[in-house]
Amino acid sequence: MANITLGRYIPLDSPIHRMDPRAKILAMLLVLIAIFFPAGWLGYAIIFVAASAVIIIARLSFSFIWRAMKPMLFMLVFLFVINSFLLKTGDPLLTIGSFTLYSDAVFQTLYIAVRLLLMVMITTCLTATTKPLDMTLGIEDLLKPFQKIHVPAHEIAMLISIALRFIPDLIDETERIIKAQESRGVDLKEGKIMERIMAILSLIVPLFVSAFQRAEDLANAMEARGYSPGEERTRYKVLKMEGRDYVLLAGAAALLACMVWLAYFR
Amino acid sequence: MPISFEHVSYIYSKGTPYEYTALKDVCLDIEEGKITAIIGQTGSGKSTLVQHLNALLLPEEGTVHILDRAITASEKPKQLKSLRGDVGLVFQFPEYQLFEETVLKDVAFGPKNFGASEEEAKKRAIHALELVGLSDKYCERSPLELSGGQKRRVAIAGILAMDPKVLVLDEPTAGLDPKGTEAMMTLFHDLNRKHGKTVLIVTHDMEQVFRYCDNVVVMEDGKVRTHTNVESFFRDPAACRDMNILPPALIRMKEMLKENGFDIPEDVLSTAALADCIARQVKNHG
Ligand SMILES: Nc1ncnc2c1ncn2[C@@H]1O[C@H](COP(=O)(O)OP(=O)(O)O)[C@@H](O)[C@H]1O
Ligand SMILES: [Mg+2]
Asked: Which residue has the least CA distance to atom 20 on ligand 1?
């Protein structure tokens, strides 16, 4: 469990880590949108280079990205199998018996794989360099303008930050309970159906009990300190955009514009 | 059938930026049939150490020998299940592992996993509940509606019902009231003295170490700092303080008396004996 890398914050010190979370979130959204324009291989190459530059500046390693990507490989293999049976256009590449693999099946799958890789790279650039709490501050600020149409910006941000706050705890708790039940002879890997069901119950019930317990404790602690969601409140940490944040945004916008141009005006 | 650690190292989250070496080249022989206390500051690796005993954690380097089995870094251990039946591990705050509808069913869960019949498992569960001091009126209650201390006892009974040869307890009395603590420690002591079980207890309470344990292992920063028997361990209170360990009250009392000119022999190891000793000297003096 501790090996899950997708979406994990990596505590390093780099210019990217120090950037304003709002700038990073907006830039990520712009580039994610850019990926969806059919800008061809050249477009993807440009995005890849840009994302790699950010990864290098953020001092993240590419093996980290690769590990985040790994869980998706299975999906891609699955997709490739389906594509090779369904897509019968393009040039025939390979014939085994009555089955023929066409070039479009390969290219379609590659296309999706590349997009997926780019998305993982870009979201990792954000999540690995931004503390969860900074992220929620950023989200709250970005949602502020929508309060006029009754979007509860603060509540959404609080929900997200509490959820993020509890993910590592729940992972730890799950590991702990797995170990405790394994000590009582639970075998999660094999066994008859009934034994399997009992094994899973023996994890889920304590996990729920402790999650509810934590939720209640937290709610009480917040209430005891006078928390009420609608209230105006000041912040300990005030976000401030600086020169480099605008550079990042400009870069992301330029990338988006470039993709639009490649896709429609070339 | 020795229990020993040979140059055991363990690394958490290996290969990530969170990598942490929790055990560093630990060599340790645990005496069988004795009660061994494992002490040391929080984060010194006590819990990591004991989780190697039933192969919940596998050593990164080195070998753990336990009850005729060798657990090594590279090999995937065989007979895991029978090992876990032989080495009963009670986790820190074990009350979070309860999940069945009734106390009886929860305690019988372990034995059933190890192949006991329904009948047999129930019998053992009732016996284990008796041991921890819960009468049969608790059997049909839901474990979730018990008090914290009672839950703890149910959880410990859940391990005792497996009838393990080696009993490993990670801070079993943390958060219990003094009376509950006393009862628990007496139980572990009895299991050792009357039923011959090897017992390992992780604890922060020096009074417990002094009163109930035979040997003591001091962990420090992932290494074994000291391993000796309890008597000689507390014979040198200065060395204890050096390891940030406050000796038990009786030892401190002896220390103070000696500083004030009393002559206290080393083998005075109970409150009553110490009182006698003082009384004699005061009488002779007067
Ligand atoms: N699951 C884990 N992942 C990463 N580090 C851990 C994990 N469990 C414990 N550690 C670290 O290993 C060290 C030893 O922990 P532990 O064996 O629990 O100490 P103790 O029981 O003596 O308090 C601590 O510094 C702790 O932070
Ligand atoms: Mg511990």
From this structure: B43
Say which residues have a Cβ less than 8 Å from residue B145's Cβ, sequence separation at least 6. Answer: none
For A150-192, the DSSP string reads: T--HHHHHHHHHHHHHHHHHHHHHHHHHHHHHHHTT--SSS--
- Chain A: give the shortest CA distance to residue B149, in Å: 17
ipTM: 0.87
> Which one-letter amino acid corresponds to residue B35?
I
In angstroms, rounded to a whole number, what is the distance separating the alpha carbons of residues B47 and B204?
A: 12
Across the interface, whether the CB atoms of B81 and A2 are under 8 A apart is answered: no
* Cα(B29) to centroid(ligand 1), Å: 22
What's the CA gap between B272 and B268, in Å, rounded?
9
Atom of ligand 1 nearest to the CA of B46: 22
In the structure, what pLDDT confidence band is assigned to residue B28 with cuts at 50, 70 and 90?
Answer: very high
Domains in chain B (CATH in brackets) are 3-247 (3.40.50.300), 248-286 (no CATH)
User: What pLDDT, on a 0 to 100 scale, did the predictor assign at position B244?
Assistant: 87
| Separation CA A265–CA B47 (nearest Å) | 64
Query: pTM, whole model, 2 decimals?
Result: 0.78
Residues of A within 8 A of B90 (CB-CB) are 183
